[in-house]
Specification:
alpha+beta, 123 residues, 8 strands, single chain, 16% helix, globular, 2,3-Dihydroxybiphenyl 1,2-Dioxygenase, domain 1
């Protein structure tokens, strides 16, 4: 199963302060927008998203169709196919992608300990 690029999406209280902290750890801004209260930061192959006021918890995030540099992959498994495969294995979805749609979509689930997992396809 190809889930795409992995990152952790952190719910932060102060985006500017968190940005400075992670820059001290060697992370650089890869994307996002301070004005929209989120940044994507990268240090080698490690990716974190900093989100102020968007999520209640930290979230494990996968992006089908992207590599670790947010570049489109030539070959990937569409999010709707991933969703069908996971549901067939008995995984319960918290939110679902519209399987009749095409292009960008997302779904969420939780692991057995209640940790949220977001699968978010941008293309």
């Amino acid at each position: 199963m190809k889930l795409g690029a992995f990152s952790i999406s952190l719910s932060v209280k102060d985006l500017e302060r968190s940005k400075a902290f992670y820059e001290d750890l060697g992370f650089e801004v890869l994307g996002g927008d301070m004005a929209h209260n989120y940044l994507i930061m990268k240090n080698e192959n490690s990716i974190i998203g900093l989100f102020q006021g968007m999520f209640d918890k930290n979230i494990l995030t996968f992006n089908p169709g992207w590599n670790e540099n947010a570049e489109n992959l030539e070959s990937y498994t569409d999010i709707r196919d991933l969703q069908r495969e996971l549901k067939a294995k008995g995984v319960t979805m918290v939110t679902e992608a519209d399987e009749s749609s095409e292009g960008p979509a997302s779904f969420t689930m939780e692991d057995p300990d209640g940790n949220p997992i977001l699968v978010d396809q941008h293309r």
